[in-house]
Q: What sequence folds into this?
């Protein structure tokens, strides 16, 4: 997950987030799944990804996940809708 315009105001944050998503799509198009991946082998199939972009409020923080430790999480309509 990528969250923009968090640490300092940026008037181009929406453009930058969209450019990042487009770049992810372009880079993934050149990747192949290894032949050993998946139950049926995968055999060099192209890596397919989906990128969602949404605007809205998000709260970020540390979330505890049992004894395995925790991790950062973005919570809110902005992260769920994308």
A:
């Amino acid at each position: 997950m990528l969250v923009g315009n968090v640490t300092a105001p940026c008037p181009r944050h929406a453009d930058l987030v969209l450019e990042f998503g487009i770049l992810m799509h372009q880079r993934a198009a050149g990747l192949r799944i290894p032949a050993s991946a998946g139950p049926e082998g995968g055999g060099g199939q192209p890596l397919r990804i989906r990128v969602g972009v949404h605007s809205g409020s998000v709260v970020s923080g540390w979330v505890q996940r049992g004894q395995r430790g925790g991790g950062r999480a973005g919570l809110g309509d902005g992260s769920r809708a994308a």
Summary: The mean pLDDT is 76.
